[in-house]
């Protein structure tokens, strides 16, 4: 059983929290075999279903979702000036369909010389269909959101032209009436796009007997590999049979009583899994995106420390 627990890394990496970690999570941390790994959630999920781990900066979300080979994502986002750097935010842009349509229409002329056509995959996800992809390496949006962008800009032969295009998009969006109305409504303006999502996805053949969790990316990966999926994060409904299982927990809400959330998870999920592992019925792998992986066997459970 592989458990993926997003959001927990930031708690464990603060030493002040060590004394309040609940019982069974503390046991797994103390007795499990730890492998440090700083990859994020999206890359982790991709790697679970890919024939080879992704080492490039980008992730092939377009190929996975659409199968298109000459298309990039150009997702709407908000850039915030913070002293001497620009921070990118994309998780809570909350665009309505009419806003998305209007913004795309405003910036489409900028892409004409590049042979690009913008369209909506969803309100918050835009596609850029190209006659030919640029000679550039991009960085996956989930690995940039919330961070300064300086170390993540496109690299390659076409860098100068695409940075210019990117700056022109920002200038056009700055004066958009859509953004003026969003600011009046206390919403984040959409003042940029982020190019990413190229490359090819090579899937494993049914790597898991069953996967469970509420995630669009997990759904796409399960569909691609013909893996049975339960679109629910309630662990109590998971039915364990002989084979490999993957369970994706809900993102830990750091802003709202995170300790209570972890304690509930400890009692309802980790305790019964620990008991089964102790009896030799399963091996547990607890994966913490941006931190690492703890693997626990029955022998590990019986360690005296």
Question: How would you describe this protein?
Answer:
By secondary structure, this protein is of the alpha/beta class. It has two domains: 2-52 and 203-301, Alkaline Phosphatase, subunit A (3-Layer(aba) Sandwich), CATH 3.40.720.10; 61-196, no CATH class. Helix content is 33%, strand content 21%. The chain is built from ten helices and 14 strands. It has a seven-stranded mixed sheet with strand order 2-14-13-1-12-10-11, sandwiched between helices. Strands 3, 4, 5, 6 and 9 form a five-stranded antiparallel sheet that branches. Strand 3 and strand 4 form a beta hairpin. Helix 3 (41-49) runs parallel beside helix 8 (216-224) and helix 5 packs across helix 6. The radius of gyration is 22 Å and the shape is elongated. The two termini are 23 Å apart.
């Amino acid at each position: 059983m592989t458990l993926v627990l997003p959001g927990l890394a930031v708690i464990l990496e603060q030493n002040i929290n060590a004394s309040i970690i609940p019982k069974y999570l503390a046991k797994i941390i103390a007795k499990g075999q730890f492998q440090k790994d700083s990859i994020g959630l999206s890359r982790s999920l991709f790697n679970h279903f890919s024939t080879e781990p992704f080492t490039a900066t980008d992730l092939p979300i377009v190929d996975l979702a659409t199968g298109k080979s000459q298309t990039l994502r150009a997702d709407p986002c908000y850039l915030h000036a913070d002293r001497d750097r620009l921070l990118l935010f994309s998780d809570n842009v909350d665009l309505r369909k009419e806003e998305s349509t209007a913004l795309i229409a405003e910036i489409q002329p900028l892409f004409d010389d590049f042979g690009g056509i913008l369209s909506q995959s969803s309100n918050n996800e835009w596609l850029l269909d190209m006659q030919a992809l640029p000679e550039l390496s991009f960085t996956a949006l989930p690995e940039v959101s919330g961070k300064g962008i300086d170390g993540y800009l496109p690299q390659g032969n076409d860098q100068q032209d695409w940075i210019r295009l990117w700056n022109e998009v920002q200038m056009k969006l700055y004066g958009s009436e859509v953004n003026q109305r969003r600011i009046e409504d206390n919403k984040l303006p959409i003042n940029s796009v982020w190019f990413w999502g190229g490359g090819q996805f090579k899937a494993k053949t049914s790597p898991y007997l069953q996967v469970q969790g509420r995630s669009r990316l997990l759904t796409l990966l399960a569909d691609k590999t013909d893996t049975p999926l339960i679109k629910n994060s309630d662990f109590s409904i998971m039915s364990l049979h002989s084979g490999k299982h993957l369970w994706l927990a809900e993102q830990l809400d750091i802003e709202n009583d995170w300790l209570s959330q972890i304690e509930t998870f400890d009692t309802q999920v980790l305790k019964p899994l620990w008991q089964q592992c102790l009896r030799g019925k399963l091996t547990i792998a607890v994966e913490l995106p941006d931190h690492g992986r703890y693997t626990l066997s029955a022998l590990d459970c019986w360690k005296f420390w």
